[in-house]
Amino acid sequence: MKRLGRIWPDVTRFENLFGAYRKARKGKQSKPAVAEFTLNLESELLRLQQDLIDFSYQPGPYRLFTIYERKKRQIAAAPFRDRVVHHALMNIIEPAIDRRFIFDSYACRQGKGVHAAVNRYQLLK
Fold this sequence. Notes:
By secondary structure, this protein is mainly alpha-helical. The chain has helices at 8-12, 14-25, 32-39, 41-53, 80-98, 114-124, and strands at 63-67, 73-77.
């Protein structure tokens, strides 16, 4: 696999971090952590950018909770600030990585998923 090089300046660009914030808040705007981050958005993003640039960024503690949808599962949720970083990184690396996946790879991919996998299976059956 070809290496992705020199991506850190793209990951830490303010515009990328702002886009990552918008993705991370989607569907979670009523959550207190999102509201708190949004209240001081520019300063939060600038501080995050500086932490990433000078390599002093530290992920926060995950919040553990259990859901009982269909079966009992324990979920580990990253703090909102960390989710912004996750999206910022994925904004840069996902296009390059996704191109290298085989067509029939369905998990966690845009335009794919369980329904697409089932449809493909039935088509090939």
